[in-house]
Amino acid sequence: MTVPDWVQDAIFYQIFPDRFANGDPGNDPPNVQAWGSQPTIWDFQGGDLRGVIQRFDYLLDLGINAIYFNPLFQSTSNHRYNISDYYKIDHKLGDEDDFSALLDVAHQNNVRVVIDGVFNHCGRGFFAFNDVLENHSYSPYIDWFHLNNVPPDAYSPGDADDYAAWWKFKSLPKFNTDNPLVQRYIFDVARYWIRLGVDGWRLDVPNEIDDDGFWSEFRQVVKLENPDAYLVGEIWDGDPDWVGPNKFDGLMNYPVREAIIELLTEIIKVDQFAEKINLQLDQYARENLFAMYNPLGSHDTVRIKTELGGNQNKVKMAFLFQMAFPGAPAIYYGDEIGLEGEQDPDCRRAFPWQEDQWDQDLLTFVRQLISQRKHLSPLRRGSYEEVLVDGNTGGYGFARILGDESILIFLNASNTRRHFRIPVSKLGWLDGRIVRDLFLNQEYIVSGSDLVIEAEPWSGMWIF
After folding, report:
1. Distance between CA atoms of 44 and 92, rounded to whole angstroms?
2. What is the Cα–Cα distance from 134 to 136, expressed in whole angstroms?
3. What are 396's strand-pairing partners?
C-alpha cells in the first residue's frame, strides 16, 4: 500500500482527448468543427485515441514518460465529465481495441497511462439516472442519487433543485456514495480499467464525495489489483489530509502553480514565494511530496503563456522551476509549444500540428529541461534545500541534493540584471570548485563558501 516508486521519475503530459490529434475522421460526429476552430462548450473537433497513437513519436521526442487523459468514457460532451457508460470508451474517441492499442504503444515505450475517474457525479444518460427518469418512484435505482422530488426535473432551464448535482448543473447528477450498491459499482469500474492495464486514476473532485471510508476502500480495491497504480486527487487547496495510506498517493499541486504565477506576475515577492513553497514542502511526508502532480496549467485554468502575458522569459522560468521541483512535473498539451488560451473553454484549443505555428525556442528549452531532469537524479529524487531568499533583489536559490551530487537552481525574479552572492556550503561545494550553467554553458568558480553569478532580468539557471 505504499506510493508507487515510479511517480517521482515521471514527467506527465495531460491530454484533453478531443483536442490533441484526429487520427480517425471516421468516428467524427457529423457536425464536427474544423480543427483549430474557436473552442466552445458544445462542439467537438475530432480528437481521438488513434490520433494519440499516430503522434506518439512527438511525445517520445519531447521526453515525457506518463500521460494523464481527461475522461475517455461514453458521454455527450466534449469534456466527458457527464459520463453515461463507465465501461465504454466514447465512440467519438474510438473503442476498447483502440484503447488497448494505445496502452500497448505506451507500455512498450515505458510510458504510464493514468485516466480520469469521475465518481462524484455522472451524466443524465447514465443507466441508473435514466431509469429514475423513466420509472419514477418505482425505479430500483431511486437511492443511487440525492433526490428531493420524484420524478426529478432534469431538463428544463435553471439550476438543479430536485436533486443534488455538481454545482447545481442538471447535466451532472450526484451519486449517493453512501449506498453500498453505488460503491460496489464504482469499485468494480476502478478494478475493471486497472485490470485492462491503466497505471492509475486521477480522481475528480474527491472532496465532494461523502467520505466515510469511501476513498480508503477505493484505494484498497485499486492497490490490491495493482500495488504500483498511482492515485492522484484533484484537491485545489493542497490539504495534506488527502494523502496517505487511506487516501491518495499525491494531489494536483495547484498551490505551487499559484505561487509560481504570483511570483512571475509580481503579485508577491521572493520572500512570500518562499513561504508558500516551504509550506508545501513541509506539510507532506516525503513519499507523498515526491508523488505530487505538479502542473503549470490544466483544462481548468488559463494557459501558462497567457497567464504570464506572453513573456517568454517568464514562461521559461516557470518551466525551469517546475522541472526542478520535487514531484512529477506535468505539461498540459500544447503549453510546450506556446499554445495560449483564456479560461475554459478557450484553454481547450486544438493542438496545431503545423510546426510553423509552434514556439520552437520554447519547445527546444522544454525538451532540454526534460532531458536534464531524466539524466540528473538529484532533480527527481534529491532533497530540497533553500539557499537564498532575497526579497529586495528578487534572488531565489535552492539546491537538489542526492548523495554527493548537488544541483543549484537559481531565479532572478526582478526587472534588473544583477550580481548575486549565493552561499553554497549546503551543496558541499568547496572553495575553488568550477561549476557550470547547464543551459548557457557558462562556468563559475566557488569563492570561499559563496558562488557569485550574474543573472539577467527574469531568468533562471541550473548550475551543476
Report:
1. 9
2. 6
3. 389, 411
Q: Give residue-wise pLDDT tens across range 38-74.
A: 999 999 999 999 999 999 999 999 999 999 999 999 9
Return all residues near 360 (Cβ < 8 A) that are at least 6 apart: none
Which domains can be identified in the chain, with CATH numbers? 5-120+177-375 (3.20.20.80), 380-463 (2.60.40.1180)
For 372-394, the DSSP string reads: HHHH-THHHHSEEEEEEEETTTT
105: which 3 cell numbers?
Answer: 504503444
Q: Tell me the sheet residues that pair with 170.
A: none
pLDDT of residue 212: 77
Task: Report the run of H or E that residue 94 belongs to, with start and end.
Answer: none
**Grid cell at residue 409:** 537552481
Catalytic residues: 204, 234
The CB-based long-range contact list for 35-39 (8 Å cut-off, 24+ gap) reads 35/350, 36/349, 36/350, 36/352, 37/350, 38/346, 39/345, 39/346, 39/348, 39/349, 39/350
Residue 199 CB coordination number (10 Å): 23
Q: Which of 446-449's residues contact partners 24+ apart within 8 Å by CB, and which partners?
A: 449/423, 449/424, 449/425
C-alpha cell of residue 7: 511517480
Q: Where are the beta strands (DSSP E) in 204-336?
A: 230-233, 250-251, 293-295, 328-332
Residues of the chain short of pLDDT 50, as ranges, are none
Q: Which contacts qualify for 309-316: CB closer than 8 Å, 24 or more apart?
A: 309/265, 310/340, 311/264, 311/458, 312/359, 312/361, 312/362, 313/456, 313/457, 313/458, 313/459, 314/264, 314/265, 314/458, 315/362, 316/362, 316/365, 316/459, 316/460
Instruction: Write out pLDDT tens, residues 222-255.
Output: 999 999 999 999 999 999 999 999 999 999 999 9
Q: Position of cell 447535466?
A: 171
Residue 295 grid cell: 502542473
Query: One-letter amino acid identity for 80?
Result: R
Nearest to 270, CA basis, from 385, 413, 399: 413
- Closest by CA to 399, choosing from 327, 459, 325, is 325
